[in-house]
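Form 7-S
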Amino acid sequence: MKFTSICILTTLISTASSFLVAHRPSTSTITCHAAKLDGRKIKGDVVPLNNFILVKKAPAQDKTEGGILLTGKAKIVKTEGTVQAVGPGKTHQDSGITVQMPVKTGESVVYGKFDGTEIDLDGQPHTLIRDDDVLVKFHGDQLTLESVDVVFDNVLVAVDSSESATEGGILLAKSSSQTKRASTGEVVKVGPGKMASNGELMTMDVAPGDMVKFRDFAGNEVEIEGKEYSVVKMVDILAKY
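Output:
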């Protein structure tokens, strides 16, 4: 009987020791990427939420196409950059279905001049923009007609530059042509479409090669390989011909 009690006690002690070892807190350290956000040290990476996109801004242009060096405020600040991180996407207001983000890490984007919230990350200028702020995306180092794509229900239109001239053929300066901004042109690229409440993409009613008329001042200007283009939403296109 005494021997049996000793065996039971030994078993209980062994079991308790095994439980304590198995549940002992780990002494290993989980290391996180250290960075500085707006000059303050943070732990971990900056992770965009909802439909926000973290973009590393492209360096300001310090030389004109003619080779003239620009300094200080004369430098041309580009509204483009490389996608560093992407949020999970927003949900459709009617169905709750998640809208797929139109860009991925490593792609380059062009966004509106007044879009986004600028932040300093590790001493480098970045900006947080929404997916709706993306005008075009492109692959590689240069924005070219071959590498460019439009997102959602956007349409890339090669604007008719003749609208910026008088009937006598005199070109108007930008300051003089604000009331005569080009609003017709040829469709060059068409986005995949806007997502409906059921998750399906809505049909785009135009195709590359179509000539279109869109609302005055509706498009966002983008220069590609020295030529002027306009990014127009499908809802702002009035007619095609």
